[in-house]
């Protein structure tokens, strides 16, 4: 049975997408502690915008946002060819493993350090390796909770909006349902994180939450538009990889419809049915 699974192209696609989705999410969480200036990346001065009475706003983002758009690309591709049940499955898997990673981070922070290791980074300008380690992996509990809740809800919203648009467009205009669902889900993601981690966890003013949310969403909006050709390219690549007939059957199955062939070559893959 496993040999059939490994030889089956749709099955291998789902396995590959799942592995990348989970790994990408874990990496995003790990590097999310670093804040960077988007303006400086392109050699510009900070925007210094004023929104909702909050001044001096600029595009300061976590490094995690560099990878999250890829999560929504994978979500939309899996939704297109394997259905919402498959998206929920990989989303739950990612959330469980991210939570597991945070538990391991917590335990590793509190394990007693070897004395020599604490000062081993002085030649590189790191006076205390334990404090540096804590600073990188010791994210606040409210940020962890906000991140996990936002990830779960944004994925569910993405699936819902994608399917609603797909029922109207059929196999056509994947760019519309992919980009549209991402734009809605990214808005949800942005504000859930801010409300849980910073409004509830750090008592930010609502004006600041709204202002920072707008700045983050502007970036995510632009990236979602930029990533649209990537989704179209991946869709075409999958059609070439599995064949147009199989790709069509996969889409039907993803929508909960029966394929013409009894053996569609992807019976082991979770779908919307």
Give a short summary of the structure.
Helix content is 70%, strand content 5%. With 273 residues, it is mostly helical. The chain has helices spanning 2-7, 9-31, 38-41, 68-82, 84-110, 115-118, 129-137, 141-169, 174-200, 206-242, 244-254; strands at 35-37, 49-51, 54-57, 60-62.
Summarize the structure in words.
- This protein has 273 residues and is mainly α.
- Helix content is 70%, strand content 5%.
- It contains eleven helices and four strands.
- The chain has helices spanning 2-7, 9-31, 38-41, 68-82, 84-110, 115-118, 129-137, 141-169, 174-200, 206-242, 244-254; strands at residues 35-37, 49-51, 54-57, 60-62.
- The strands form two sheets. It has a two-stranded antiparallel ribbon. A two-stranded antiparallel ribbon has the order 2-3.
- A hairpin with a 2-residue loop joins β2 (49-51) and β3.
- α4 crosses α10 (206-242).
- The radius of gyration is 21 Å and the shape is globular.
- The model is unreliable at 260-273 (pLDDT under 50).
What general outline do the C-alpha atoms trace? Answer: globular
Largest sheet at a glance? 2 strands, antiparallel
Q: For the CA atoms, what is the radius of gyration?
A: 21 Å
What's the end-to-end separation, in Å?
22 Å
Mean pLDDT: 85
| Helix percent band | over 70%
Label the structural class.
mainly alpha
Number of strands: 4
> Strand content of the residues, in percent?
under 5%
Quaternary class: single chain
Low-pLDDT sequence parts: 260-273
Q: Helices and strands, in N-to-C order?
A: HHEHEEEHHHHHHHH
- Helix count equals 11
Largest sheet, order of strands side by side? 1-4
